[in-house]
UniProtKB/TrEMBL annotation:
Gene3D superfamilies for the chain: 1.20.5.300
Upper taxonomic lineage: Bacteria, Pseudomonadati, Pseudomonadota, Gammaproteobacteria, Alteromonadales
Ranges annotated as spanning the membrane: none
Similarity comment: family membership: Belongs to the SlyX family.
Protein name, per record: Protein SlyX homolog
Residue ranges that the Swiss-Prot or TrEMBL entry lists as coiled coil: 11-52
Alphabetized UniProt keyword annotations: Coiled coil
Organism: Motilimonas pumila
One Pfam family per UniProt: SlyX
């Protein structure tokens, strides 16, 4: 009887371990899917910015020297 009990305990342990592994795999799969969505969003944003740069529609955020007001120590 002890041998059967040991086998049942080992089987229960293995079933529990597989169940936890299944949960972990599912959680990792969801995380990978979310990261892939984020990567695709970033890729499309990057393509948009690159296209704007190529088209010359990005405005320069730095004013020319003539447009700048002199610093207060002048």
């Amino acid at each position: 009887m002890t041998e059967i009990s040991d086998i049942l305990n080992r089987l229960e342990y293995l079933e529990t371990k597989v169940a936890f592994q299944d949960d972990t795999i599912e959680a990792l799969n969801q995380e990978i899917a979310e990261q892939q969505n984020k990567i695709e969003t970033l890729r499309s944003q990057m393509q948009f910015l690159v296209q704007k740069m190529k088209d010359g529609h990005v405005e320069n955020q730095v004013a020319s020297e003539a447009e700048e007001t002199p610093p207060p120590h002048y």
